[in-house]
Amino acid sequence: PEARDKMNPFAEQEAWEEHQIGKSKLQFGSKDRKRSSDDYQYVFEDGIDFVKSSVIEGTQHEEDSDQEDIDEKDMLKRELQHVSLNQDERKTLPIYKFRDELLKAVEEYQVIVIVGETGSGKTTQIPQYLHEAGYTAKGKVACTQPRRVAAMSVAARVSQEMGVKLGHEVGYSIRFEDCTSEKTLIKYMTDGMLLREFLGEPDLASYSVVMVDEAHERTLSTDILFGLVKDISRFRPDLKLLISSATLDAEKFSDYFDSAPIFKIPGRRYPVEVHYTKAPEADYIDAAIVTVLQIHVTQPPGDILVFLTGQEEIETIDEILKHRTRGLGTKIAELLICPIYANLPTELQAKIFEPTPEGARKVVLATNIAETSLTIDGIKYVVDPGFCKIKSYNPRTGMESLLINPISKASANQRAGRSGRTGPGKCFRLYTSYNYMHDLEDNTVPEIQRTNLANVVLTLKSLGIHDLVNFDFMDPPPSEALLKALEQLFALSALNSRGELTKTGRRMAEFPLDPMLSKMIVASEKYKCSDEVISIASMLSVGNSIFYRPKDKQVHADNARLNFHTGNVGDHIALLNVYNSWKETDYSTQWCYENYIQVRSMKRARDIRDQLEGLLERVEIEISSNASDLDAIKKAITSGFFHHSSRLQKNGSYRTVKNPQTVLPRWVIYHELVLTTKEYMRQVTELKPDWLVEIAPHYYQLKDVDDTGTKKLPKGQGRAAL
Ligand code: CDP
Ligand code: MG
């Protein structure tokens, strides 16, 4: 449909990349490059001018002050890493010296707050110590992580250290992927998964220890877990609780957990030189690329860590860096580019931990995950553009968005610190020191205060927690957001007017999905199209990585993609077409290549679909197919997503309208909003406006959807979508 181009998130990216590549006139080895030793200023064609501004002092522990010794140890450690992960290596971690003390404290107290520098060994070692001390004989040890990649990678690491197969004694559990077994004693899991375990086991009886790790991240699930584990610790005196954090604001955790003792692990950290740009950078992507190359050609050996906001950005920079270094010839050392982000396939994740070969330099392109969750050895330089993606929520409009925002001072310092782990480091901030001083907030606002709470409210309600206002939150969410969540769940018929869980709500809570997606699935029963709807839900859950669009074959890729849209069926049905066509070829990989589809994403969708099928059975919804009735399928989708309806406006900023006969405005529902420099709707399907009234009469009235009248928007629905 003509709407597609306007919403094509690639459209803009493309133009932008062209601009980037066209602009790259960096000449390496050019005589212009000068560097004065102490001021760190060099002139670079198109280069960036940094000023050295401050030094973050290291907090070296006394015993560790012999730097050479550590460098040596570290080298040895790195060499050993891939030969064998023997037990001696574990003993080199800062936490090792405190092993016995820590175990004594765990024995003595029920709740302990543990604080230690990132990389000191909290995540990988503490669960092993607990296992060695016999806690796993009484029940599993759970260790929660805010990020799936961290849960997986840490579990892999620990299983190696223990010499067991991943999924046996040591396993992990993340949404849609359970890599544990009967044998599992140490279970790394996302905080969201532990939250879901409460649904089946409200007292967590099968656990002897719960370690809420990376507590400083204050994700929504972690915050809710705080309340729940605090509650069960009262009637399960045998359950040990460890709250571990990489930052020093431990008092807050201690206060919340009834003055729990704080256990500090002194870290080793070296001084980090901080450099700022002289003037603000107009384009931080470009600035990051130039800075990486500058470091590469002018700085002594040591790996580089660049903090970026997301997968797309990482992939773009990856490509541009490869493109630019290709032409550099043999005079410049090899630059190994290692991306790391949440959706990176597991096989590739291990790559970032591999030691850098002699003579080469590694550049790790990471999201916030490398801020505290993962430690990559060998990093000496950090490039910090100063941004991250932050979810924000406007309870008034009910609109949630992932926006690129400036980071906080705490984050900036955490990032800088990543360069000083194994020796003195340097951090290049792609912003001015004035920006740092005056524009950055001290701390990031906890997620609970800036997110849609519908999912959490549904979970809490199904746990029997009705009085949400008096729930023991560490930092309570805005009451407006709580109210909005209740309202939304009521609109989705998950709650009745007294705020009690309905049958629909109980069924919805079984699905580890956003309430809108679960509602769409539950509603598919009525429209007899559950088979199609779970396929769509699985494809949507995979994210934006189904279609593959290589630079040199964009036209072919776009044509292939259009095939699935025949009849202007909309993005949701197109996703269904992709899934079904793939299934017809007996899940052929070849077919994926031919159609510019990412086979990995499809396999994941299939996996998710299998699980959703299992859950359908659990909530007693029959699998029924209604493939020929597209309206029925779209109505089921609308039942979940009627909040996300939009009317297209004729607006000059749009791209060419491909099909001029179509009359505007038209009505669409979208899966999500993506906010970059502009706002895009992602996954859009046309709907008949009267469906809104038919399906959600409590939310839309006829006058809201009257196309003939003047522009009136349904209540609560902002036009911000467009
Ligand atoms: O949790 P904390 O930040 O205190 O440290 P950790 O994650 O337990 O990391 C301890 C050591 O294990 C670091 O030197 C990491 O580089 C290493 N590690 C690794 O090599 N591979 C992983 N997947 C995880 C950790
Ligand atoms: Mg950790």
UniProtKB/TrEMBL annotation:
Protein's organism: Oryza sativa subsp. indica (Rice)
Stretches assigned to the Helicase ATP-binding domain: 103-266
Which start and end residues of the full protein are shown? Answer: 325 to 1046 of 1046
What residues does the Helicase C-terminal domain cover? 291-464
Which keywords annotate this record? ATP-binding, Helicase, Hydrolase, mRNA processing, mRNA splicing, Nucleotide-binding, Spliceosome
Lineage of the native species? Eukaryota, Viridiplantae, Streptophyta, Embryophyta, Tracheophyta
What reaction does this catalyse?
ATP + H2O = ADP + phosphate + H(+)
* UniProt-listed Enzyme Commission number(s): 3.6.4.13
Q: Where is coiled-coil annotated? A: none
Q: Which domain of life is it from?
A: Eukaryota
**GO CC terms for this protein?**
catalytic step 2 spliceosome
Gene Ontology MF terms: ATP binding; hydrolase activity; RNA binding; RNA helicase activity
Tell me, what is an example of a GO biological process annotation in this record? mRNA processing
Per its record, how is this protein called by name? RNA helicase
Q: Which family does it belong to?
A: Belongs to the DEAD box helicase family. DEAH subfamily. PRP2 sub-subfamily.
Keyword ATP-binding in the entry? The reply is yes
